[in-house]
Structures are given as structure tokens and as C-alpha cells.
């Protein structure tokens, strides 16, 4: 029997200089595409992934240019399209001054006080 897994992502922009995506989102999308029962919770700085109009074109650190910049909002949208529930902590969005109208459609808000109840619905919780 397949386990129901929740991946919690709170470190944002992990490896996006070296890659064109976040490795945790890539892993989640790959696992979901292979039939694993998996959902994602974005918290902390990772709630920035939900902002619709990000443009990392021209991303450069010193002499190193990212020629295939990440499109993390698109990656989250693909994960939702594959059937994953994507949650985010409402307070973390508010703390960063991100308004509801700025984020993609589909992610589900959750209050921090409701987090323990959500966690009990999963057999495994992976925190990244």
C-alpha cells in the first residue's frame, strides 16, 4: 500500500543557480508523475514560489549567468496539475507582503494553528 507523503519546503531558491528548477519541486513532480501519493507545503521563504509574475531572466552571480532561469510558479502549477495538493502558510505570505492577487491559482492556504491537524493526515512528512 502506498504511503501518503507531505513534503514541506521552507528553503527557497535551492540550487536555482546551477539548475533551472528547485530540486525538491522537481522530485515531488517526478514522484507524483510515477503514482506516489504526495502533497507539498510551502512555508517560510518558499511561499515566494507562488508569485505569478517572477522573472529570473538575466540572473547572474559574478561572471556566472543562468541561461535557463527557473520558473518556480510554473513548476508549482505543474505539480497541482498532476493532482498534488499544494498548501502554503498564510502567515508566511503576509509576512513577506505578498497579496492573494499576486499568486497562482490552486494552492490552498493554511493557518499555522491548523498545521498539526494537517500533518496527522500523512503517513510520512519530509522536511527540506
Q: Which features characterize this protein?
A:
about 130 residues, alpha/beta, five-stranded parallel sheet, about 25% helix, globular, Hypothetical Protein Ychn, Chain: A, two-stranded antiparallel ribbon
Name of the top-level CATH class: Alpha Beta
The proportion of residues forming helix, as a percent range, comes to: 25-40%
Quick check: average pLDDT? 89
Shape: globular
Number of helices: 4
Distance between the termini: 25 Å
Give the SSE order as H and E letters.
Answer: EHEEEHEHEHE
CATH architecture: 3-Layer(aba) Sandwich
Computed CA radius of gyration, to the nearest angstrom: 15 Å
Quick recap:
With 128 residues, this protein is of the alpha/beta class. The chain has helices at 23-33, 72-81, 90-95, 115-119; strands spanning 4-9, 37-42, 60-61, 64-65, 86-89, 108-110, 124-127.
Architecture overview:
With 128 residues, this protein is α/β, with parallel strands linked by helices. It has one domain: 3-Layer(aba) Sandwich (Hypothetical Protein Ychn, Chain: A). It contains four helices and seven strands; from the N terminus they run βαβββαβαβαβ. The chain has helices at residues 23-33, 72-81, 90-95, 115-119, and strands at 4-9, 37-42, 60-61, 64-65, 86-89, 108-110, 124-127. Strands 6-5-2-1-7 form a five-stranded parallel sheet. Strands 3-4 form a two-stranded antiparallel ribbon. Strand 1 (4-9), helix 1 (23-33) and strand 2 form a beta-alpha-beta unit. Helix 1 packs parallel to helix 2 (72-81). The longest helix is centred in the first third of the chain and has 11 residues, at 23-33.
Amino acid at each position: 500500500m502506498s504511503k501518503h507523503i507531505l513534503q514541506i519546503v521552507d528553503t527557497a531558491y535551492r540550487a536555482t543557480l546551477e539548475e533551472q528548477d528547485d530540486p525538491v519541486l522537481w522530485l515531488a513532480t517526478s514522484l507524483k508523475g510515477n503514482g506516489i501519493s504526495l502533497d507539498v507545503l510551502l512555508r517560510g521563504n518558499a511561499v515566494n514560489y507562488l508569485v505569478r509574475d517572477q522573472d529570473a531572466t538575466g540572473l547572474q552571480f559574478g561572471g556566472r549567468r543562468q541561461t535557463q532561469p527557473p520558473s518556480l510558479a510554473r513548476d508549482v502549477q505543474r505539480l497541482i496539475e498532476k493532482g498534488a495538493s499544494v498548501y502554503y502558510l498564510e502567515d508566511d505570505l503576509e509576512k513577506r507582503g505578498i497579496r492573494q492577487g499576486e499568486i497562482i491559482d490552486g494552492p490552498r492556504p493554511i493557518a499555522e494553528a491548523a498545521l498539526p491537524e494537517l500533518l496527522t493526515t500523512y503517513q510520512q512528512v519530509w522536511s527540506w
